[in-house]
Amino acid sequence: GDRYPVWIGREEMEQAMLARVLAVTSVGLSWAIVWSLLSQELKPFSTPAILRTLDAGRLDPVIGRDDDIDRIICILCRRTKNCAALVGPAGVGKTAIVEGLARRIAAGTVPEALVGARVAELDVGAMVAGTHWRGMFEQRLKDAIKKAEDSAGKLILFIDEMHMIVGAGDHRGGTGDAANILKPALARGRIRCIGATTTEEYRKYIQRDAALERRFQRVDVDEPTVQATVAILQG
């Protein structure tokens, strides 16, 4: 089990770690050495960058996906069930659609509800990384959700490989996986979210969780047309 099964916050962690370091060091060691040892102990508790804002200025133009982007915009502007799940084969262009949305927002060619919004990718892998202590994963995800809620819809979460949220963090001794932590926020309609996954992974993970599936409007992403493919290749 966990060495320290219940911690409330970073301050308590620091106190426990300091006691641990002092227990194995002599009084003659300088505080510089003690602090160095303490810093090493605290490395797992540093918060990684789990939200990465898409920089529209660095994104390439998206060709042949205007209809898909329009549909995503319509979903995001709903009062309820305002989250979309992009479902399609790997490499079909799901992420490109989200990037196209980010470019539209930056250009101001979106409805009033999305003016001034930004799209931020939620890195599930970074959330799980280094969560050796009970409650750390949950806190990281809740912090990200709170940022989205506090933005009044102006921070749109993008979860690539959204099937990964099913089961993510559940083995860390916490209160549930990412999907279960995310569901209440999605149900309240206070955050806008876009997920992306393959058809197979959607069937295998998302469809099996009826409560999670209900929170997202599925958008099937097809292969680009021949004309669009030629235009993409021509740049």
Molecular structure report:
The chain crosses the membrane at residues 21-38. This protein is an alpha/beta fold. It folds into two domains: 10-45; 51-234, Rossmann fold. The protein has helices at residues 10-23, 31-42, 66-76, 94-107, 124-128, 136-150, 178-188, 199-206, 210-214, 226-234; strands at 51-53, 83-87, 118-122, 155-160, 192-197, 217-220. The protein has a six-stranded mixed beta sheet with strand order 1-3-4-5-2-6, sandwiched between helices. Helix 3 (66-76) crosses helix 4 (94-107). The radius of gyration is 21 Å and the shape is globular.
Summed up, what is this model?
The protein has 235 residues and is α/β, with parallel strands linked by helices. It has helices spanning 10-23, 31-42, 66-76, 94-107, 124-128, 136-150, 178-188, 199-206, 210-214, 226-234; strands at residues 51-53, 83-87, 118-122, 155-160, 192-197, 217-220.
